[in-house]
Structures are given as C-alpha cells and as structure tokens.
Write a structure and sequence with these properties.
Mean pLDDT: 86
Shape: globular
Radius of gyration: 14 Å
Order of helices and strands: EEEEEEEE
Structural class: mainly beta
Low-confidence stretches: none
Largest sheet: 2 strands, antiparallel
Number of strands: 8
Number of helices: 0
Helix content: under 10%
Distance between the termini: 44 Å
Oligomer: single chain
C-alpha cells in the first residue's frame, strides 16, 4: 500500500484574496480507505520551506485537533481568525 504513515506533509498555498478569516478544506475524494489527519497547522512562509518564527497556528475540526475522512468525504476546518504577528 502506498501512502503516508506518521509523516508531516507541508503544502505551500498562495491565496488570491486577502482577509482575516479562513477555513481549510480537506478531501478524501479519490481514496479507497479512510484518511486520518492527526493535526493541521497554518503558518506564514519565510523562504523555501521555512516558516516565519511565531506564526505557526493549529487548526481545529469540530473543536478537535484532527479528523478522519471516509472515502469521498470533505471536511472544513473550524473558522480561523488571523492572529499572525504583523
């Protein structure tokens, strides 16, 4: 079986609009087995794969730090309000 197990996956996302609130959408659209997300975070990118110190923030899913997505399931993170240092 191919996949990830107890590994961190980092994705750089470029937004097209600004704002102080956001939600992250995670989908298991093509999987045939449930996918468990132990934790998800957002942070400001510094350079390469580095993040701005102090900008890491944990996301929640229905008030919990992680979630499990069954086959074909889509979940949104709880609304998150920007609290990054300026």
């Amino acid at each position: 079986m191919r996949g990830f197990n107890n590994q961190t996956i980092r994705m750089v996302v470029r937004t097209s609009i600004g704002g102080r609130r956001m939600r992250i959408r995670i989908a298991n659209a093509y999987g045939s087995v449930p996918v468990t997300v132990g934790a998800a975070h957002v942070a400001l990118r510094s350079k390469e794969s580095e993040i701005v110190p102090g900008s890491d923030r944990a996301l929640a899913f229905d008030g919990k730090p992680g979630c499990t997505l069954d086959q074909g399931m889509v979940i949104l993170s709880d609304p998150w309000i920007q609290t990054f240092p300026r």
